[in-house]
Amino acid sequence: MSETDQGVTEFVFMHVAEGSQPGEGHENFFGTPRAPGFLNARYGWQVEDPSVFHWIINWRSLDDHKAFMTSPEYPAFVQKITPWTSNLSLFHAALHRHPPTEVFEGLTTELVKLHLKEGVTKEEMTKTYHIFEERLKNAKGYHAHAGGWSIEDDNCAVIVIKWDDKDAHTDWVKSEEGEDILRGKEGLLCNVDKIEMWHINDAGPITPPE
């Protein structure tokens, strides 16, 4: 969980307009040659709300994403996605290690935002996170993870974990091991005031043309 990494991951939430389907053609979402600073990306559907479509995009830096948003190509990009999405939101996180490609390839990714309790420092949360990630590696159904901090909210940690599926994650949470790692002594959630969590089923890579 480090703030020194230059790379950022963009998490996009899109509510698909009624009667519309993004379909596989929308993975080539740029519609223009590869944007400078774009590293790789995946797309998929949210388990909790199947009408929500996700892009998970790894950038070389936040400035690269901002540059794309001010580029001449950006209006055409927005026009391309507007007809099939009724609502769009996004946030960025600096995750370690970057890019966390393996976490999003195939299966199901747990995306969780942990808002810290008042007075809890990043140093305290980072120490707890390192204990958590070492113990997490033995969890049944676990494959990979990454963690870091939200760019937009300085008091919010972001963790992504690849599981066999959502059930593998929820079964682990309910287990004695999961309960201890999350809520026991030095558990991950001891310093957390609010949790936001989603599961995303991977649907494939985003591959802009060269």
Automatic annotation (TrEMBL):
Stated name of the protein: ABM domain-containing protein
Chain ranges of the ABM domain: 34-79
Record's signal peptide: none
Transmembrane segments annotated in the record for this chain: none
InterPro entries: ABM_dom (IPR007138), Dimeric_a/b-barrel (IPR011008)
Lineage: Eukaryota, Fungi, Dikarya, Ascomycota, Pezizomycotina
Organism of derivation: Morchella conica CCBAS932
Source organism, top-level taxon: Eukaryota
